[in-house]
Fold this sequence. Notes:
This protein is α/β, with parallel strands linked by helices. The chain has helices at 13-24, 31-36, 40-51, 58-68, 87-96, 109-117, 157-171, 173-177, 191-203, and strands spanning 2-6, 27-30, 78-81, 101-106, 119-122, 128-130, 149-150, 182-186. The chain has a single domain (2-203), classed as P-loop containing nucleotide triphosphate hydrolases (Rossmann fold, 3-Layer(aba) Sandwich). Helix 4 (58-68) runs parallel beside helix 5 (87-96) and helix 6 crosses helix 7. The site of zinc ion has 8 residues, from loops.
Amino acid sequence: MKLIFIGPQGSGKGTEAKIISKKLAISHISTGELFRNITGELKEKVNSYINQGELVPDELTIKILKERIIEPDCKNGFILDGFPRNIAQANILDKITKINKVIEITLNDELAIKRISSRLSCKKCGAVFNTITNPPEKENICDKCKGELYRRKDDNPEEIKKRLFIYHKETEPILEKYKDILITINGEQDIEKIAKEILEKIKE
Ligand SMILES: [Zn+2]
């Protein structure tokens, strides 16, 4: 089972990808993980872009992804989370593998902004919480490592609006390309309900 998860920031896409990957015993490949776990020459190349605040070029990302999906933990399949993020990437992806289903988790901009502005990250371990959807047990303290929680600088309404604009303009057009294998889920529902619906619809 090879899946792509698509949704705006705040839709819970990453959380759902994690849950579904466990249920289906397939790998969860997020763009962040993809770049973090590479080594050697490729890592230097990728870091040179990231350190300058630039996007890693499509060709390089695909090269890394191509090697990643032949690793043993991907033999049952995988979920791509955060990739492809534009038509050009989707077209290259088609050349290296065949995707079975694309899961779109929808959320309107207003709610996305509300959710992302309530996001908190742990200074120590990087765990992410949300004061609305996934609050920490103790206020401003990480459940996992007891580290201090903080709000990321770019999680303010203006920056979030910019990212949503790019999502609508560049990522959403991919959905048309995959319309025959597309599953659309309402991201306003709670985490468990969304996961249940995804699993049901995948099996149909
Ligand atoms: Zn922590």
